[in-house]
Amino acid sequence: MLEFTRRVLSPVISLFILSTGSSLLGTLLPVRLEVMSDSVVIVGFLSTIFYVGSLTGSIFIENLILKIGLVRCFSLLSAIMAVTTLACGSAESELLWLAIRLFYGSCLAGIWVVIKAWMMSL
Questions:
Q1: How many CB atoms lie within 10 A of CB 118?
Q2: How many C-beta neighbours within 10 Å does residue 37 have?
Q3: Which of 11, 75, 77, 106 is the most exposed place for a label (fewest CB within 10 A)?
Q4: If we measure between CA atoms, which residue out of 34, 43, 37, 14 comes closest to residue 108?
């Protein structure tokens, strides 16, 4: 029973941390763009590109999971998300923000699929 609890608790806790961090980054976006004095249209594009990334990430993640496995895929996507999160703090260009949000959305959706597959394999 303890082994099952440990295997279930790991993805659930990581999902909680991921959701909390993603919400905080989503709150940072409009505040940071307000400081940069960008228009509302840019904020709309950034929100849209995030969901485009989520769509593409959820579609194409299956091939990556089959090639490298769940644990390595989770680690890879988490590392890419960490880099994109750090890049958000230093990005000044709108085009760079668009690329960051695209990768962030792809990785976030990919991690959700990986965690779901992980939970289904228990």
A1: 20
A2: 6
A3: 75
A4: 14
